[in-house]
Write a structure and sequence with these properties.
The two termini are 16 Å apart. With 102 residues, this protein is of the alpha+beta class. The chain has a six-stranded antiparallel β-sheet, with no helix packed on it. The protein is built from two helices and six strands; from the N terminus they run ααββββββ. It is elongated. 26% of the residues lie in helices and 49% in strands.
């Protein structure tokens, strides 16, 4: 029960922040501190606003973000490039999970 209340509270807080971002014309990703995830079919994934790499194999990539963790599974995956705040992954991407994204 406590988890549900906490999750609901976080969702309400993020909704208020999103409305504030709209009101002052600021990008929501900046205000909310959430990643921007863009896919090109099942072959390419681009992630912005990430915090670090937690695990990297050709079948699993776990990425830390300010809002939580992103888990990418697939086959033959590789990181084509990365900078301090963005990365490009290629390969056969099967799933993207947000196990702890708030």
């Amino acid at each position: 029960m406590a988890f549900l209340m906490s999750e609901t509270h976080n969702q309400e807080k993020n909704l208020r922040r999103a409305r504030m971002a709209d009101a002052v014309n600021m990008p929501k990703d900046v205000v909310l501190g959430v990643p921007i995830v863009t896919m090109l079919g099942q072959i390419e994934l681009h992630i912005e606003n990430y915090g670090g790499l937690l695990e990297y194999t050709d079948v699993l990539i776990r990425i830390r973000t300010k809002a939580g963790q992103i888990k990418v599974t697939g086959e033959g995956m590789q990181i084509d490039f990365f900078t301090n705040d963005e990365m490009k992954v290629s390969g056969r991407i099967k799933s993207i999970e947000y196990p702890s994204l708030s």
